[in-house]
Amino acid sequence: MDGIHDIGGMDGFGRMARDESVFHAPWERTAFALASSARMVGNTDDFRHAIERLDPAFYLGADYYGRWLGALEVRLRERDLIDSDEVDRRAGSAAARPRAIASAGLPTASPEGGPVRTIDRRPLYAVGQSVIARDLHPVGHTRLPRYVRGHHGTITRVHPAFVFPDTNAHGWGEDPQYVYAVQFAASHLWGAGDHSVSVDLFEPYLEAA
Amino acid sequence: MTDHDHDHDPRALRAEALEAILIERGLVDPAVIDSTLDYFENDLGPMLGAQVVAKAWADPAFKRRLLDDGLGAIAELGLGGPQVDHLVVVENTPDVHNVVVCTLCSCYPWGLLGLPPAWYKSLAYRSRVVREPRNVLAEMGCELPDDIEVRVWDSSAEVRYFVLPERPNGTDGLPEDVLAEHVHRDQMIGVAR
């Protein structure tokens, strides 16, 4: 989805503030621990997608662990494990009740182990090759940032194959795919700048240039 | 909770209510909450990454393995852990400076650096460092000379990036544990030289 989370290159968020805190308040620790350990069917990709599906105003106003807390509640209620009305009553307020759009599909199983997979085909692309990041706009979860779509880049590393977030977040299977480090020139992405930006892109996000 | 302001934050009330409901329903184990926090706050942290950097500075063969196969090399030190399923170590040199971000969320090599500071997760850092890294670094106190090439790494998949900073002058012959004290978290993210 082309969501509020996809902020690479956006203007308006101001100067860097040197806030070194990991947690600002005890509730942020609680939110981290609950989101990390609550037992439910799902995976990291659907957790990230739950954050992305939060109402944009909620997302921007919630701060980092506020988004974790919101996404945790969204995931729990989508699985009928809790009822947000009950949370309102117990909290004595609906002020922090998260709003979110529905997912295109939820996982039906939880994975074992990490996301790296061995697949029985060769990578389509090689180091040094020119590629284009496809101009895709999937309705669901994706890890293809908007700021590289349609741009030319160069493969600098071929990583192993990983579970494909675009399907895994929705219970549509792991469909593992090779991942590539693709280097883009800032002058191409932004019209200015002498640096490069390297983005890790799954094979289906790419086409040969 | 003792902090008056936090008592009245609706998010604090909601976190407390959710915690109580989840415990009552057996969806979280209070002991797991405690052990999770203990692990992330006490067992993990930048001291682990600093150990990797110090070893790479002291041992050229280890450095080659680290740059070639990050995960395999840190496993030699008994390291790995959460959010380090695949690791790429990028080396700073007199001519190249690397800096790491996650624009889509806030991916970070927890197993080597612990949980990230607030600024790493901030909307300003995530949005700006891919577009104007020199300005962002300057605002953080790191002025890069114009002739240094800047490479930004957006960790958009499950690969985690880790910066190997340059070894400071005047550290010849120091043992690894002393070298590790010269390494700061910001260098391993790439917002300091």
Structure report:
The complex is a heterodimer of chains A (209) and B (193). Chain A has 209 residues and is an alpha+beta fold. Chain A has two domains: 26-91, no CATH class; 116-208, Roll (SH3 type barrels), CATH 2.30.30. In chain A, 29% of the residues lie in helices and 17% in strands. Chain A has helices at 26-37, 44-52, 56-62, 64-78, 84-91, 165-168, 186-190, and strands spanning 116-117, 130-133, 152-162, 177-185, 196-202, 206-208. In chain A, strands 1, 2, 3, 4, 5 and 6 form a six-stranded antiparallel sheet that branches. In chain A, helix 1 packs parallel to helix 4, helix 2 packs across helix 4 (64-78) and helix 3 (56-62) packs across helix 4. Chain A is globular and about 60 Å long. The two termini of chain A are 25 Å apart. The mean pLDDT of chain A is 97. Chain B has 193 residues and is an alpha/beta fold. Chain B folds into two domains: 4-42, no CATH class; 45-189, Nitrile hydratase alpha /Thiocyanate hydrolase gamma (Nitrile Hydratase, Chain A, Alpha-Beta Complex), CATH 3.90.330.10. Chain B has twelve helices and four strands. Chain B has helices spanning 4-7, 10-24, 30-43, 46-58, 60-68, 70-76, 110-113, 118-121, 123-128, 133-139, 176-180, 185-189, and strands at 86-91, 96-101, 149-154, 159-164. In chain B, helix 4 packs across helix 5 and helix 5 crosses helix 6. The longest helix of chain B has 15 residues, at 10-24. The N and C termini of chain B lie far apart (40 Å). Classes of the chains: A alpha+beta (209), B alpha/beta (193).
